[in-house]
Specification:
Helix content of chain C: 25-40%
Chains: A alpha/beta (about 575), B alpha/beta (about 400), C alpha/beta (about 325)
Number of domains of chain C: 1
Largest interface: A-C, 67 and 60 residues
CATH superfamily of chain C: Thiamin diphosphate (ThDP)-binding fold, Pyr/PP domains
CATH topology of chain C: Rossmann fold
Structural class of chain C: alpha/beta
Distance between the termini of chain A: 33 Å
CATH architecture of chain C: 3-Layer(aba) Sandwich
CATH class of chain C: Alpha Beta
Shape of chain C: globular
Strand order of the largest sheet of chain C: 2-1-3-4-6-5-7-8
Helix content of chain A: 25-40%
Number of helices of chain A: 18
Oligomer: heterotrimer
Strand content of chain C: 5-15%
Largest sheet of chain A: 5 strands, parallel
Radius of gyration of chain A: 28 Å
Largest sheet of chain C: 8 strands, mixed
């Protein structure tokens, strides 16, 4: 009942009776968007999420965020070509965040502190799964199946786990002790039954695996180096690049010490081998590629498949790279190679857009080398599952990794043909595990895709200050001999510095901008974290939809939608 | 205590006895001596108050308003142009129902310039919603001022105490100042019930929509009407303390049985009384001293006019283009009488023109003699001083 | 994504870790810079204050009887007297021996024009009052008429551009020189784009004994002609161009500034606002006025020594840098 007091004074705070929320035509909402690092990570890690935890001082939580996707950060932090960093929005502002350095630090810290994976043992009625191959794809698949509550039998042809990580990655890139610690920890998880020296096709059959298990993942890798099927004579003692690399990794040395070697190929195997040979003391190491050294501005289909970091370090270490060259023929003296005829070569697109290698007549030149090594790719060694392999590869549905012609069987990693890195293999194993679990639950496998990242333009950059990136220390080329790691790690301070530089793309930074700048007190701060992961709640009773909060949100986390 | 004091000085000391915590001061003749007197008392440590020497009357009223709503008894004084300049604030103060007391040292309004006494200034703001009390003598000014604080604070209405400029303010005479104990016993500590206090925050001066505004005005009007009771009571109770009264709402003097009445506001009464006393040959008159002009005491007035054939309303201001101000209001009030007297309305003494003893006879002649006049007139005007066209 | 509050909104509102002097539900326009400024001021001022508020947008949109958005003791008197009402409150509280402080709120009209005399008198007498001018550069409440604070060349209803005019003819009144000439212990300018700086200055002014003055640049989306969501950006550009200098004075001497790290051209600021649209016509007189405004900005930068030296922590780019967890410096 209204009563007008003398002079018509009003009581405090009574404006709350008037809900100005009825005025608005738009309302702000919290919209967690994927940061570009997350969208770009082949393993599916959300770097923004774990950088936030690092900034909050929660290192363990940050590691747990990583291992929710990728169980081997100490490895990937060293070997991954970090597409997250290429995509990082901070790169448009000043310098990209050294994300891989943070990941490596967390991986190493977890090993130091013996943090346990947040994975429970499977129950007594757990479904049984089989995984073939303990490379990164198989390990990731086994890990995620375990996380999904399954019991996993992991078979591996070699006596030890690791796949290509163990056999083909030089120790100066990935120290064996790190590899061992990381893998042992995964294999020790209750529910994983690791069977080394067990080869599919020889010790167990595909049918046995299928009948004894509710799901099957094959991560056989591509262990068979391709022979040169060239129209020229090749020496009888030819080793493929992969064989030599594996020998060097295993034994620390390779047979023969030629003075000059030419490696044909542009992938990681070729480049790694080139660097290994330089370490061995080979004076001249040539790398022949019909593509170009990867660099900003070089189109992806014209760039060597090896990662930029590896290629540039190879050049530092004295490897000579011949770009846009092909091999016309080898020059032999009996069975001995004395040289090769190189020709200018490029991949050109024809009228239908398909690329063909074109050699340009009249550009031939002879390169004198004592040894030639083809590193032109590998094929799947399909013993025991020949029916599943098509032209040397496993043909899979691109997202879940289910074999296109054999539903119920999943594959990933090198065997797919289009994925050649550890992190891609981890992603394949993870998604395949999720696919297997979905199939088990009777759900359909909808085609998936990485999330759409929030573009740089949607951030409000004004609120950030420029700061240089912390970089991992790199051994100067002159000091790179033996097996010490060429790249060191970041220290704790540098890690926090990098985490602090993260722009938190698409995620709440709890910076208080919205809370501070709302003229209508319509952003409320919560002491606990709100259900949507932010620290704020919109008071829609009073929010007029002016949009200041959305415009001034530094991370693009607030979006205006029609109301 | 009886002292020979100039009216202004007496007022200054009276104000000091009422213990205002804030006094806003802006000089304008003929009020200046009041604030000067207060300033001296403050300087000599005889009055503990914040004296704010403002930069205009508009600010003087505003300072007083601010002080009052912030919980302090406050006071200011002004006259003439100053009253007009602070007019919007005066309306605001009353509309917000803020208790304040101010002295209006009645003076003519410009243009052209005139610094001497008439009542045009207080009449110009009669609709501001303040209580207006007119003082016939300096003693009344003293007593009314003390009463004003109590009336204001009890009714939550501001009170303007009107004191004829120069005529009263600058006259030296023996006056009885009350004692501190008397005043302290009569005036409790200042309390304003809807003021500003962080412990109980309120918003004063809100925006009131058409749906509620009439009610606010109605309440204000009713408050003023009810204040009549408080005005009478205050006078009555103060009289018990000091042994003299001011007449409450109005006072009937002179020949109570006369059938001719003369109604006045302010100090002109003394001149008329002296004139009638000095010359027994003149017709007797019943004097009605109107003290409370706002609220207008219609009922008391009707009672005081019973038995009158003729009533002269003598005012010290006019409404150009209409005539008198008080006259028509009196006339309207008396209509309800069974046999209302015939009302004659005159203005005199505008701009401080001397009101002599002849005035009484002029008035009587004007209504009873052959030179009977009709309608409103400035009775002491000398039209021969004017061009033919302006007469 | 839907919002699911963890507890009732009422409980959350009551638990906000800042003082809610200005409540929600007021009738300010969407994106009102003045409402934001008033909210920030009362937050910093705390509950032990009394406020006098001149006529204008702020008092109208906060107190439609029977409602009031204020949680503080507050009075609106008339247009031109707020400094005097505040002076009266200060005198009373001083006499009562209370520590409660007095704030006077006015728009630019109530400061530069109609309220100027009372402001000058209040400062001359040294009342312990913090006078805050919410400067939206026109008489907004009455529908955008020009005031002494309206910038040169701005469009208002009483200074419209047309065939023979290019908006307001006269310069923005140099209020800071006038305030400086009163030699009060503390005077400052602030902007809603730098809320920490604003709150800090409120506290500093309240800690200062004697008269203090704070001019807060408060964009008016309706009157300036921009979207409500751009209020902060527009305010920030005003500072970054030098058109609204952020400074502090003590007794008339310049003692502090918010340095501009890298002055932006005035066109960056002007082009966002409809009230300056006529300056972007393809005409000599438009170009001339643009240059004039740039010259004014340059003069401000010169006069108040606003040019930063490299990267400073509290300059126009650094002062509002965000941190995870919101640790603002004021």
């Amino acid at each position: 009942m209204i009563e007008i007091p003398p002079g018509a004074y009003a009581r405090p705070g009574t404006s709350l009776d008037f809900k100005t929320g009825t005025w608005r035509v738009e309302r702000p909402v919290h919209d967690r968007r994927a940061a570009p690092c997350h969208a770009a990570c082949p393993a599916g890690e959300d770097a923004q999420a774990y950088l936030a935890k690092v900034e909050n001082g929660d290192l363990r939580g940050a590691w747990e965020t990583i291992v929710a996707a990728n169980p081997m950060p100490a490895i990937t932090g060293r070997v991954c070509h970090h597409p997250c960093e290429s995509a990082c929005n901070r790169g448009h502002f000043d310098e990209t965040i050294t994300i891989h350095g943070v990941e490596r630090f967390l991986g190493d810290e977890a090993l130091r502190e013996h943090w346990a994976y947040p994975v429970a043992a499977p129950g007594p009625d757990a479904p049984r799964m089989a995984v073939v191959g303990s490379g990164p794809a198989g390990l990731a698949a086994a890990y995620h199946l375990l996380r999904g509550g399954c019991r996993v039998t992991l078979i591996e042809a070699m006596p030890v786990a690791g796949g290509t990580m163990r056999t083909a990655i030089p120790h100066y890139r990935l120290p064996p002790s790190i590899l061992d610690q990381e893998l042992d920890r995964i294999l020790a998880l209750p529910g994983i039954d690791f069977r080394p020296s067990t080869r599919l096709g020889r010790d167990v059959s595909l049918e046995e695996l299928q009948s004894e298990n509710d799901g099957l993942f094959l991560g056989p890798g591509r262990r068979k180096g391709r022979e040169w099927s060239a129209d020229f004579a090749v020496p009888g003692d030819l080793h493929t690049g992969l064989q030599l690399l594996e020998t060097w990794v295993a034994e620390g040395t390779i047979p023969q010490q030629p003075k000059s070697v030419a490696i044909v190929g542009g992938g990681n195997t070729a480049v790694d081998l080139a660097r290994v040979l330089r370490r061995q003391g080979v004076e001249q190491v040539h790398l022949i590629s019909h593509q170009r050294i990867p660099a900003p501005g070089v189109p992806q289909d014209d760039a060597m498949r090896a990662t930029y970091r590896e290629v540039s370090q190879a050049i530092e270490e004295g490897v000579t790279i011949h770009e846009h060259r092909g091999v016309r023929r080898l020059i032999l003296r009996g069975e001995r190679v004395v040289g090769m005829e190189l020709v200018h070569m490029k991949k050109l697109a024809d009228a239908d857009g398909r690329l063909h290698r074109v050699a340009f007549e009249g550009t031939e030149a002879v390169l004198h080398v004592e040894h030639v090594i083809p590193a032109i790719g590998q094929d799947v060694d399909a013993l025991g599952f020949e029916a599943l392999v098509e032209r040397g590869q496993m043909r899979v549905e691109p997202w879940w990794g289910e074999l296109q012609k054999h539903p119920g069987i999943f594959s990933g990693g090198d065997a797919r043909g289009d994925h050649g890195t550890v992190s891609e293999a981890v992603g394949d194993g993870r998604r395949a595990a999720l696919g297997i679990l979905r199939r088990l639950a009777g759900k359909a496998l909808e085609p998936g895709a990485p999330p759409e990242p929030i573009p740089y333009g949607e951030l409000n950059i004004h609120y950030f200050e420029s700061a240089p990136a912390a970089h991992e220390p790199v051994l100067p080329a002159a000091e790179r001999h033996g097996n010490e790691e060429i790249e060191g790690g970041l220290d704790g301070r540098a890690v926090r510095h990098e985490a602090h530089r993260c722009l938190s793309c698409g995620d709440c930074l709890a910076c208080d901008n919205c809370w501070t700048l709302c003229p209508d007190q319509s952003v409320l701060k919560t002491r606990e974290v709100a259900i949507d992961g932010s620290n704020y709640v919109f008071d829609y009773d009073y929010c007029k939809g002016c949009g200041i909060c959305a415009h001034e949100c530094p991370t693009g986390y607030i979006r205006m939608i029609p109301d | 205590m009886a002292l020979a004091l100039e009216g202004s000085q007496a007022l200054a000391r009276t104000i000091a006895l009422c213990r205002p915590q804030v006094v806003a001061a802006y000089p304008i003749t003929p009020q200046t001596h009041i604030v000067e007197g207060i300033a001296k008392l403050v300087a000599d440590g005889k009055l503990d108050c914040e004296m704010v020497s403002v930069e205009s009357e508009h600010s003087a009223a505003s300072v007083a308003l601010g002080a009052a709503v912030a919980g302090s008894r406050a006071y200011t004084a002004s006259a003439s142009q100053g009253i007009l300049l602070m007019a919007e604030v005066l309306f605001d103060i009353a509309g917000l129902r803020v208790p304040l007391v101010m002295t209006c040292a009645n003076r003519a309004l410009s243009g052209p310039l005139n610094i001497w006494n008439d009542q045009q200034d207080s009449m110009a703001v009669r609709d501001a919603g303040w209580i207006q009390l007119y003082c016939a003598t300096n003693q009344e000014a003293i007593d009314t001022t003390v009463q004003a604080f109590r009336i204001a604070e009890r009714c939550e209405l501001p009170v303007m105490v009107c004191v004829d400029g120069f005529t009263l303010t600058h006259t030296l005479e023996p006056l009885d100042l009350p004692s501190a104990e008397q005043v302290d016993g009569f005036l409790p500590a200042y309390r304003f019930h809807h003021g500003l206090d962080p412990a109980d925050p309120r918003s004063l001066g809100t925006l009131v929509a058409p749906e509620h505004f009439s009610e606010v005005r109605h309440a204000h009007h009713q408050a003023l009407m009810r204040a009549q009771t408080e005005i009478e009571q205050a006078d009555h109770e103060w009289a018990a303390v000091v042994g003299r009264h001011c007449g409450g709402l109005l006072e009937v003097r002179g020949d109570a049985g006369a059938r001719l009445g003369i109604l006045t506001l302010g100090s002109v009464l003394g001149t008329l009384e002296d004139a009638m006393d000095n010359d027994p040959s003149l017709p007797r008159a019943r004097f009605i001293k109107l003290r409370s002009y706002r609220p207008f005491p219609a009922q008391a007035l009707r009672k005081a006019c019973e038995g009158l054939d003729t009533l002269i309303v003598l005012e010290r201001a006019l409404s150009p283009g209409a005539g008198g101000i008080v006259g028509p209001e009196v006339q309207t009030a008396l209509i309800e009488m069974e046999a209302p007297p015939r009302v004659h309305n005159f203005a005199a003494g505008l701009g401080g023109r001397d009101l002599t003893l002849d005035l009484y006879k002029s008035l009587v002649d004007a209504v009873l003699g052959e030179k009977r006049r009709h309608g409103f007139a400035i009775i002491d005007v000398d039209t021969t001083l004017l061009p033919e066209a302006d007469r | 994504m839907n919002e699911q509050p963890l507890q009732s909104l009422d409980a959350l509102r009551a638990r906000q870790p800042r003082f809610r002097g200005l409540e929600s539900g007021h009738r300010a326009c969407q994106g009102c810079g003045e409402a934001l400024a008033a909210r920030l001021v009362t937050e910093a001022a705390g509950p032990d204050v009394v406020i006098a508020n001149a006529t204008g947008c702020l008092e109208v949109f906060t107190t439609p009887w029977p409602q009031s958005a204020w949680r503080l003791p507050w009075i609106h008197s008339v247009f031109g007297n707020v400094a005097a009402v505040a002076a009266g409150m200060e005198a009373a509280l001083k006499q009562q021996g209370r520590a409660t402080q007095v704030l006077a709120f006015a728009g630019d009209g109530g400061t530069f024009d109609i309220g100027f005399q009372a402001l000058s008198g209040m400062m001359e007498r040294g009342h312990d009052v913090l006078f805050i001018c919410f400067d939206n550069e026109a008489y907004m409440n009455t529908g955008v008429q020009r005031s002494g604070s309206t910038p040169h060349a701005a469009m208002t209803t009483t200074s419209p551009p047309g065939a023979v005019r290019m908006g307001k003819r006269h310069m923005k009144k140099d209020i800071l020189s006038i305030i400086a000439a009163h030699h009060i212990p503390y005077a400052a300018t602030a902007s809603v784009a730098y809320p920490s700086d604003l709150r800090n200055k409120v506290r500093r002014a309240m800690d200062t004994e004697g008269a203090s003055f704070l001019q807060i640049h408060s964009p008016c989306p309706l009157g300036w002609g921009h979207d409500g969501s751009l209020t902060i950006e527009v305010a920030r550009l005003a500072v970054q161009t030098g058109l609204f200098p952020i400074i502090e004075m003590e007794r008339g001497e310049l003692i502090g500034t918010l340095p501009i790290r890298d002055p932006k051209p005035v066109s960056d600021y002007l082009k966002l606002q409809n009230r300056f649209r006529h300056l972007f016509a393809d005409a000599y007189r438009a170009r001339k006025e643009l240059e004039h405004l740039q010259a004014i900005a340059n003069r401000n930068i010169e006069r108040f020594e606003l040019r930063g030296v490299g990267v400073e922590k509290y300059d126009t780019e650094g002062a509002d840098t965000v941190h995870r967890g919101g640790d603002r410096w004021a």
